[in-house]
């Protein structure tokens, strides 16, 4: 019998395949599937996937930051998966870019964010959490505080902490703009198991980054364990073998999509 994760029902509690082993994400080798489907804010029935080959990274919540305010918007759409599916609870963080309303990243707001992510990690079947964000230069130190606090929260469950304890119950991952992975290494000290470079919707940098990847690997080592690509845009020349693939789709996944991945 399939297990149904109706995350809208879980909102009340929130309110309070093997990969090739590499130096980037050794604790994920043999644990996280080599293919991950991103399931965004829409109804998704993914009971048809082979959970030995595919995992699911679902949007569990979006957190909005304005000054010192932390406002969560929880998933309201149902997600159905088969028992044993590897689940990653994704938290999207949005910040107000208005100068007068930019987040303060004070201690109280950092603790609130960490608590919300920690609760999402306790949803049924969740094996990892992922933080999805954009960051202007002035916000980078704030995100460093967030990721360090999250690592502390995870250590409350796993004393060995992220990146050091193979087989630990919860992994900490993040997404990354592709330009961050080819540019300055501003997050190379983040205590994460994996940074997923999103090589789609790259805007003006698209051709430049694709050209770079034809002959080079990512400058940032944390980006060298995976790729995030769009189902609509397809693969591109330069993908290194043996790395985890995250797939984004703007419409619900269907069984006929999988043979093309």
Could you write a compact summary of the structure shown?
The chain is of the alpha/beta class and 261 residues long.
Describe this structure in words.
The chain is α/β, with parallel strands linked by helices. It has one domain: Alpha-Beta Barrel (TIM Barrel). It has helices at residues 11-15, 107-120, 140-155, 178-182, 206-215, and strands at 3-5, 35-39, 44-45, 54-66, 69-74, 79-81, 87-95, 126-133, 171-177, 194-198, 226-230, 244-248. The strands form two sheets. Strands 2, 4, 5, 7, 8, 9, 10, 11 and 12 form a nine-stranded mixed sheet that branches. Helix 2 packs across helix 3. The relative contact order is 0.16. The model is unreliable at 1-22 and 163-168 (pLDDT under 50).
Notable characteristics:
261 residues, 12 strands, 3-stranded mixed beta sheet, disordered N terminus, 9-stranded mixed beta sheet, alpha/beta, TIM Barrel
Strand-pairing-aware structural class: alpha/beta
Count of helix runs: 5
Helix content: 10-25%
Strand content: 25-35%
- Kindly provide the name of the CATH class: Alpha Beta
Query: What is the CATH architecture term?
Result: Alpha-Beta Barrel
Rounded mean pLDDT score: 85
Number of domains: 1
User: Total number of β-strand segments?
Assistant: 12
Low-confidence stretches: 1-22, 163-168
**Compute the gyration radius: what is it?**
17 Å
Largest sheet, strands/sense/barrel:
9 strands, mixed
CATH overall fold name: TIM Barrel
Could you give the topology of this structure?
Elements (H helix, E strand, L loop, with lengths): L2 E3 L5 H5 L19 E5 L4 E2 L8 E13 L2 E6 L4 E3 L5 E9 L11 H14 L5 E8 L6 H16 L15 E7 H5 L11 E5 L7 H10 L10 E5 L13 E5 L13
Parallel strand pairs: 2-4, 2-12, 3-6, 4-7, 7-8, 8-9, 9-10, 11-12
Antiparallel strand pairs: 1-6, 4-5
Helix pairs in contact: 2-3
